[in-house]
Amino acid sequence: RRPLIIGRQLDDTERYGRLRLDGVRLAGFAEKGERGPGIINTGHYLLPASLFEGQALPEKFSFETDFLVPHIADIGMEVFLTDGHFIDIGVPEDFLRAQTELAQVG
C-alpha cells in the first residue's frame, strides 16, 4: 500500500504553502507566500507501518521537513484531493472558530 497525503484545493495558498504534484504523486512542497490557487497539505496522512523501517530517526523530528522532503522520490506518496471543510487550527483565531463550528455539528 502506498503512503497517502490528503490535499485540499484552495483559491489562495499564500498562508499555507502548496503541494507540488506530478500527476497524483507528491513531488515536493512550496513554502508559504505564493499567492493564488493551489493544493495545500491538510496535515492528514495514511502511512504503512513499514514506512519507517530501517530509518535512523531521532526521537523528535519534523515528519515533513526531516523525513518526507529528503525521501520524497523514494516514497512514492500519492495525493488524495478532498473538497471537505478545512480550518487551520494552528492559528488561534481559527482554532476558536473551529470550536464553534464543531459544536454546531454535534
Mean pLDDT: 91
Q: Helix and strand string, N-terminal first?
A: EEEEHEH
Cα-atom radius of gyration: 15 Å
Distance between the termini: 34 Å
Overall 3D geometry?
Answer: globular
What proportion of the residues form beta strands (DSSP E)? 25-35%
Biggest β-sheet description: 3 strands, mixed
Strand order of the largest sheet: 4-1-5
Number of strands: 5
User: Stretches where pLDDT falls below 50 for ≥5 residues?
Assistant: none
Annotation field: number of helices: 2
Helix content: 25-40%
Q: Decide which structural class fits the backbone.
A: alpha+beta
How would you describe this structure to a colleague?
With 106 residues, the chain is an alpha+beta fold. 25% of the residues lie in helices and 30% in strands. A three-stranded mixed β-sheet has the order 4-1-5, with no helix packed on it. The longest helix is centred in the C-terminal third of the chain and has 14 residues, at 92-105. The model has no long low-confidence stretch (mean pLDDT 91).
